[in-house]
Each structure stands twice: as C-alpha cells, then as structure tokens.
Amino acid sequence: MEYKILDENKLINVNKPSRYMGREKNAIVKPFDQVEVPMAFAFPDLYDVGMSHLGSKILYEIVNNLDFSSMERVYTPWPDFEALLRQEGATLTTLETQTPLAKFPLLGITLQYELNYTNILTILDLAQIPFYAKERTQDHPIIIGGGPGAFNPEPVADFFDLIVLGDGEIILPKLLQLYRDLQREIGSRPKRREFLLKACLLQGVYVPEFYQPSYDQEGILQAYRRTEAEAPYPVKKQIVADLDEAPYPETMLLPFGEVIHDRAMIELFRGCTAGCRFCQAGCIYRPVRERSLELLTKQAELLIRATGYDEVSLISLSSMDYTEIESLVDTLLNRYGCEGVGLALPSLRVDSFSVDLAHRVQEVRKSGLTLAPEAGSQRLRNIINKRISEEQIIEAVSGAFDAGWSSLKLYFMIGLPGETDEDLQAIVDMAEKIVSIWRQKRRKGQLRISISVATFVPKPHTPFQWFGQISQEEVERRQRYLRSLIKSRQISLSTHDAKTSFLEAVFSRGDRRLAPSIISAYQLGARFDGWTEHFRFDLWQQSFEQLGIDAHDYAHREIEQTAVLPWDHLDSGIRKEWLQKEWNLAMACQETDDCRFGPCSLCGVCMDYGVANDLKGRS
Known about the structure:
- The protein has two domains: 8-165 and 168-236, no CATH class; 243-509 and 559-609, Alpha-Beta Horseshoe (pyruvate-formate lyase- activating enzyme).
- Helix content is 34%, strand content 14%.
- The chain is built from 20 helices and 19 strands.
- The strands form six sheets. Strands 2-1-3-4-5-6 form a six-stranded mixed beta sheet, with helices on one face. Strands 15-16-17-18 form a four-stranded parallel beta sheet, covered by helices on one side.
- The chain is globular.
C-alpha cells in the first residue's frame, strides 16, 4: 500500500511544529530498512506529555541498544495537526525516520490513562491500521499494549494483538528476540497467529483473542474461556527482581520546546507497600525494589552531563520512603548544588521529616509545598489506610512555616467508602487550623492554602475495586458543600470534573462490551478526553445511548465479592483473598502496617512470585 508523507514545510500551519519534527538531541536514529526488527512506540497523548514519561525513555534506550532492533516514537497529534494530515491525505509517521506506522512489523502503545482511549484510535486511524485486531492482515503491524492500564485492558482488548503485564525491561526484549527468530526461520514476517501462540508462553504476555468472556442472560460476566490450551490462566505479570541489574538510560531525549516535566529523572525504587486501599499503583507494582545509592549517584552524574539539565527529579511512588534518601539528597546537593542543579521530590509524606528534607532540597530552587492527607478525618484516613494522624499533619505544616513556606497545597479525595458530610467538614477544619497556626506564628507575607479535591475512582486489583463510585449528582453536591464551608480568603478550592471522573470509572471497571462505544465516540469527534478544553461528555452520552450501554452500571454498581471480575484472569500478584481482607479491615476502620517496616501482610506477591522487597539501604 502507498502512503503519502506530509511535506515538513506544511508544519508552519500548526501550533508548536517541533512536536512533529523529531531530530531532538540524544535521539537514536537507525535506518528503517537496515534494521531486522524495527518497532514503533506510540504514546497516546500530546508530545508534551509523552516526552515527560520515564517508562518510555527506559524502553527507548533498551530497544535501541539491541543490535537487531530499533524503537521509533510517535505521539497523538493535536487536533490542528490531525486536521492537517487529513486535509493533505497524509499518513502518520514516526519522528526518527518519518516512516509510516503501518510499515512497522510491531507497534507498541502504552496504556497510561483511561481517558486516552480515543487517542489510541486517532493513532491507528491516521496510520491506516484497522481498529480491531481481527480485521488486520499479515501486512499490518502487531499491536502491543502495556503500562498500568494493562491490568484491566478489557475495554480496549479487542484493539490489541497482545498486551504485556509488568516490567517491560524483561518482556519487550524477549518479544523482539522471538519475532527475530521466527522471521529468520521463514525469511519473512512471521504469521501473526504463529507469533502470538509462541508469545503467550512468555510470562507477562496476554493475548486477548485466546480468552473469550461469557455472560449469562442478564449480562453478568460468568467466566473467561481459553480458546488455546497452551494459553496460561491466569496471566502472571513479569517482575524485575533487582533494579540494579535493570538497564537505565545514560542520557535522555532533549525536546526543542517546553514539555510538562522538562528535567532529568532517576528512579529511586519501584513499587510501594504503604497499602493505601484506593491506590492501584501500590498494588500492581509490588514488591518494593530499590536501586543502590551508588548506582543512583552514578546515574545522576551521567544524566546531568549528557543533558545539561539544571534539575533532577527523584522519581518513585513515595520517594521519601527510599531507605537512603537523606544520603542521596546530601550527596547530590553537595556535588551539584554549587552548579545550580536542583532536586525535585514529587511525592512527600505528611510528616516533619519530609518537610525538613524538602527544605534542604529547596535551598537551590524554591517552590510551593504539596502534601496529601487524602481525607480530612482520622476515621476516614483509617478506612483508606493512610497512616497519618492530625498531629503529624499539624507538626509538618508548622515546621514548613518555620522553614519559610507560605504556599501550601493539600490533596484530598471525595466519594471514598464510608464518607459523610462530617468528613468533608473535617477537610475545611484542617485548613482553618493551618491558617490559625500561621497567625500564631505571625509570619510575614500572604498565606495561600490550595485544597485540591479529586473524586474517588474504583480501580481494579485494589481493596476498593468492589465499591461503586458515587453518582455525578452526589459528587457535585459534595463539591458545592465543601465550597460553602470555606470562609477564609486564604483558602482556595479546586475540584475535578465529575463527568470526567465518571467516565474514568466506567472504563476502569469496564469489559470488552465497551469497545464499540469507544469507536462510536471517536467517530462522533471525541479526542483528548483528559484535556478539559477538548472533553465532550455529550458525545459519550450519545455513544452509550445509541449502543444501549448502561454506563452507570459500570461506574456506580457495588459488586459482590464472589462475582467474576473483568480482570480476574490477569494476575497482579495480589491475592484476591488479601484484597477482601483489606476491604473488611477498612469497614472496621482498622489499619494495616507497611510490610517494608513491619510484619508481612500476606498479600501474596512475594510468596507466589519468589521476589521479596529489596531495600538496598537495609541489606
């Protein structure tokens, strides 16, 4: 098939042409026709977002370091560039060699966020690749999914040939090697089915067409039936046991224009065992695996010298829990602070230790302070297993004021199991207490407290997966109630859109019957649903109504713990019995210790996978 390549001179007609040009510093370019197994990697969001994603950077370096393979990038075109491609009749191409996506034997698409699903279709459509895997021919790429959304990919499963669960550092090279071996055997592209049959035998590989759901007369999911005897059940995730042995970029792509997180990044550790009962990442990324202090300081040195960045972000789900965080911060500040290189700690615990360390970090570069109590009352914090007291919060804030902060952002969630209006009142009461502390200290300047309130979304593989999201009307009522309680001018409130949160819940808990609604919404014009300026809820309503889909049932229904879930055939490593136990403890307002620092909670991942928490600072 012939594909028209857009004349680069036409980019003058779009906003930020640098998003589509490629040729960034540190880009790796291998001639497409000289690579045995070239693959494209698509991030289904804007370039500015995708270029800030650490996982993409890790895979980019791993694949391009293979002598027989390459990875080229593509991002979802902003609507102005999509319109230009359609106007010119041009296909979507990669940034590195401007090769049409449809020419690649393999195309990876990361599943980071449910509201990116229509962006996946934008990429496939502009690449002239059929949406459904069953409609693709031998000449089309094999579409590979991955990322956190892989742990319930069912709403988009029919769009993918295979999906990888867990750490891509291990799985992706094995898939590429398998493809190469089969290609060498026959001297041409492997047959799709032959490749998929062999790929599904690799741990962490899920081939959706080999698992067919069945429903009863009322439309309730009953089971997943394997259509191939060799296909494993359940599909187990892949885990990197020792992160010190895992590849990590020694350099990073430098964009021409500004992106969301334009800084060097080092990953301190992977996984989290804090046990917040609403948090999917804390479940699917277990166990905790740290990188050594020596390796992290070496990686920071390489990245600073290779990129020229003046800020290094210390990345993990809870950076303050790194066992040698003080030594790491002191080492990096002592070495690079005099060069004007600062550090960023994107996730802080709500305690005085975190605030003290954040103060030391900000001696190089100042910013506001962000803390996440998540719930206003102690009762509700016990329910969600956020093991902090109000005394700890007040002590941390008091220390922050003493250290010179006057801008504070507090993250909370509404719609959590067991929440009442008294819990909402407790959010504002906490903010008012913080204002009182400021006044008692008689600090100079203007205090600014920003309360950011998200809406709880039930996520698969968490103790709260069975609990239905509260209705949109109730979300909006609670938001109005919160706003009515705020009297101080020093306190501001921002809330997440109830309709956006509803749609996220629909696809978070959804199954394969939702795929037609995604296509329908896309055809009606849905794009960039995670972006406020582009979100069109009316298009989704129209799509659901036309197809007779009860979206409210997906989002709001409380599910029996004995029910078959759309993700039951995908093993995150967490036993279902443990999730049920955690739900019962939540309803009893009881907490569970972090197994990094206390007894094993018997979640199952260490026992079933043979990979335990790896705390380098305590070995």
